[in-house]
Amino acid sequence: MLEQHAFHDIGPFANNIYVVTDPATRETAVIDVGFEPERVIELVRAKGLDVRWLLATHAHYDHVAAMLPVQQAVGGQFALHRADLLLLRAVAFQGSMFGLPAVPVPEVELELAEGLRVPLGDQSLDVLFTPGHAPGHVTFRHGQTLWSGDVLFAGSVGRTDLPGSSWSELERSIRERLFPLGDELRVLPGHGSATTIGEERLHNPFVGESAGRP
Predict the structure, then answer these.
(1) Which domains does the chain have, with CATH numbers?
(2) What is the pLDDT along the chain (214 residues), one digit of tens a residue?
């Protein structure tokens, strides 16, 4: 089992940040920091955590803009799927669309890809390639838990009206990649409350059984 600390409703887009730790070694992965890096930094220092990874489900501003301050304060290698490198380089432009300041971002030290296992102490996180909301979007899995970023939410799905997004890819990622993993899996999204695969498979109004199929 992994330990987890979560920060909810962070910043102007009400993001969730997840800090995941192997209890035996204290090695830690920080997932999706877009705002208020001091919260993560304070937690890491208070708990004596050893940050090995800064993991981004995708490179939208609200998921990466505060990664560099975290890295500078407590370390960690930044990891991202290569298909999102263009989005990462365009973070300043992304921010300008919402009146947010330009920010520096870390260099990518680990390229995430389908099937990769990210080691975390004596355990690991599996990488699932789930594009659609962003071209290089990934979901992380450990046991019965998924960190889904902006692919799947409680009662909703990620936007597909942004550059590089695709409704058909998003729908395929959810219905063909996530739903078959099993109804019991817990889904921890980038925004909003936790849910389960079963709940969304049955009732999600966009991709669930109630939405029908083409």
Answers:
(1) 3-211 (3.60.15.10)
(2) 999 999 999 999 999 999 999 999 999 999 999 999 999 999 999 999 999 999 999 999 999 999 999 999 999 999 999 999 999 999 999 999 999 999 999 999 999 999 999 999 999 999 999 999 999 999 999 999 999 999 999 999 999 999 899 999 999 999 999 999 999 999 999 999 999 999 999 999 999 997 865 4
Q: How far apart are CA 54 and CA 70, in angstroms?
A: 9
Does the pTM of the predicted model rise above 0.85? yes
Phi, psi of 9 (to 5 degrees): 60, 50
**DSSP conformation letters of 46-87:** HHT-EEEEEE-S---HHHHTTHHHHHHHH--EEEEEGGGHHH
